[in-house]
Amino acid sequence: MLFIDGLQQAVSQFGKDVMSEQRLVNILSDFGAFENTALRNILEKAVKINVAAKLLLLEVEPDSFRILKINGIVDDMARVNGFQPELTRIVVRGMAFALGLLLDPSVQQPVKNTDTPRPETPATTPVSHVVSIAGMSINMIKVEKGVFSMGGTAEQGLFASFDEKPPVYAELNTYYIADTPVTQDLWETVTGDNPSHFKGPKLPVERVTWRECKRFIAKLNIMTGFEFRFPTEAEWEYAARGANKGKRQMFAGCGENELIDFVWFDANSGDRTHEVRLKKPNELGLYDMSGNINEWCSDWYANSYANNCHFLNPQGPDSGSYKVCRGGCWKSKPADCRVSKRFPANPDFRNSLIGFRLAATTL
Predict the structure, then answer these.
(1) Quick one: 149 and 63 in the same domain?
(2) Distance, CA of 274 to CA of 293 (rounded, Å)
(3) Per the count of CB atoms within 10 A, which of 4, 252, 274, 331 is most buried?
């Protein structure tokens, strides 16, 4: 059995309909015999866990990092599944070679030198689910499952902090996230009060602790019959990056040149929050993911991704002293509004810089 035949069989067996797998099947070169049962088992596992999608993320990485990250995929796959590292390397490097990421699957260092990015995914209308409560609408955007590189990736440049490094791969199942932070009118409807410093019904609620937000979510769930929650840190970042529609930019929906059209930050906010949906949304139709208000996530903060990020649906550490905040705010410098920027905050801390956004696993 040839290598391409083994891959096609595995694709058929697992019923994959992921674009990257089909692309790999279409372009894969026949580089050698694939009769070895152990190799075939590793290949089938690689297809099942979507290794091709992880490899495709490396097309935009600098050449100096690409080999290291391919080796990281090999090491993780071998360790988690108990495969022989050398055989795993043959399979993963064979895939990388077929995708044009390596010049030769048997060579350790040479890589294809190209700055040509993948074609962008055509923009589509966001899929949403509207939840109504007291005449108001909570617009939840569906984020399709996918794999992404989380943390201080190449486009974050020298701004990436120590706690954003090294980037890690994360795979997320489909989930929903609100198109805006929770606004003050929704908070008042659920709780009967408004702790915010800057008052206005369509301004994001702020001066709310993580624990108060958790109690708000519990009340909202009783009132609506849904199961809202905080987004995980990985879910927040994947959505901010535009998920599989994203263009790998420094901010949510834009690069540095378009910052003023997408983000409320220290230079244009007038030292206050602003109504949601006034700036442009990112590729998923999400507003204010960068700037306006920092947002609580469910995760406990850890200063290392690599030691605390499981590949599938990462939840962060089991315990800690601080929760994670994301997104930057009206008082932030641009570098603090980046999609990978992280902030630790005590779950009982409150100020006018922090609010939150709803997420849900199903609706």
Answers:
(1) no
(2) 9
(3) 252
DSSP state of 340: T
Based on the fold, state whether residues 71 and 154 are members of the same structural domain: no
Within a domain: residue 119?
no
pTM of the model: 0.68
In a domain, 175, yes or no: yes
9-53 confidence digits (pLDDT tens)? 444 443 333 334 444 444 333 333 344 567 667 877 887 787 877
Residue carrying the six token digits 């990978």: 340
Show the DSSP H helices in the chain as ranges.
Answer: 3-14, 19-27, 37-48, 51-56, 63-81, 85-98, 184-191, 210-224, 233-240, 259-262
Cα(6)–Cα(14) distance, integer angstroms: 12
Task: Identify the burial level of 358 via C-beta atoms within 10 angstroms of its C-beta, where 0-12 means exposed, 13-18 middle and 19 or more buried.
Answer: buried
* Secondary element (H or E) of residue 156: none
Establish if 37 belongs to a structural domain: yes
- Domain end among 52, 82, 98: 98
Confidence of residue 101 (pLDDT cuts 50, 70, 90): low
CA separation for the pair 184, 190 (Å, rounded) = 10
CA–CA dist 105, 98 (Å, integer) = 9
Q: Each residue of 174-202: pLDDT tens digit? A: 999 999 999 999 999 999 999 999 999 99
Same domain, 83 and 162: no
How many domains, in total, are found in the chain? 2
Higher pLDDT, 97 or 247: 247
Q: Alpha-carbon torsion 262, 268, 271, 275, what sign? A: negative
Look up the domain containing 318 and give its range: 128-360
Do residues 13 and 155 share a domain?
no
Pairing of strands 354-356, 294-300: parallel
Classified as helix, coil or strand, 260 is helix
At 341, which CATH number? 3.90.1580.10
Determine the residue type at 217.
I
